[in-house]
Amino acid sequence: MSKVVAGKSLRKNYTSISNELIRSSQIDDSTFRLICWMTSHEEGFEINFASIQNALGYGRDKLRKILKNAETLNYLVRRKIRTNGGLFDFEYHIFKDNDSAIAFRESLPQEELTSDLLSGGGSTRGVKTGGGSAASNGPNSKCRRSRRSPTGIGTHSTSCY
């Protein structure tokens, strides 16, 4: 009988992904790809929505659908923050596993939680990996926060954990 055998795993320049994420029948391919791509960067990595769209070839509506799906399946936590100007802003934190996302969500004050990914006013700061404070990006970084996104959904940034 024929069989398929997994090859040796390399440790350098590779990303660990939970079996729960890999084997989930609920997550679609695009959401899986976004989570894997974002979490392949260092914890605290930030990127704006337009850069994600360019890197992964997603349109605005597709990215919105993917983010909503990731939030529904507990791989993304949307955090509502208030800017220095008094406006509301949002950070999207992406995680490799549900437990980390749920723990991060539970650690947030109630006023920073939001239940609807696509509603609300203000702008968004993009996506981040993980739940800690975002690492600062140097002047040569391609992953700086944008003031206004050409996607039409505010200013965005992204982080991954």
Topology:
Layout: H1 19-23, H2 29-39, H3 49-56, H4 60-72, E1 76-82, E2 88-94, H5 98-107, E3 123-129, E4 158-160
Parallel strand pairs: 2-3, 2-4
Antiparallel strand pairs: 1-2
Helix pairs in contact: 2-4
Provide an overview of this structure:
- Residues 114-161 are annotated as: Disordered.
- This protein is α/β, with parallel strands linked by helices.
- It has a single domain, classed as Arc Repressor Mutant, subunit A, CATH 1.10.10.
- 29% of the residues lie in helices and 15% in strands.
- The chain has helices at residues 19-23, 29-39, 49-56, 60-72, 98-107; strands spanning 76-82, 88-94, 123-129, 158-160.
- Strand 2, helix 5 and strand 3 form a beta-alpha-beta unit.
- Helix 2 packs across helix 4.
- The longest helix has 13 residues, at 60-72.
Judging from the principal axes of the Cα atoms, what is the shape? globular
Percent helix: 25-40%
Average pLDDT, rounded to a whole number, is 74
What portion of residues belong to β-strands? 5-15%
Largest sheet: 4 strands, mixed
Work out the helix count: 5
Number of strands: 4
**Number of domains as seen in the coordinates:** 1
Write a short abstract of this structure.
This protein is α/β, with parallel strands linked by helices and about 160 residues long. It is built from five helices and four strands, in the order ααααββαββ. Keywords: Plasmid.
Can you tag this structure with a few keywords?
globular, 4 strands, four-stranded mixed β-sheet, disordered C terminus, alpha/beta, 161 residues, Arc Repressor Mutant, subunit A, 5 helices
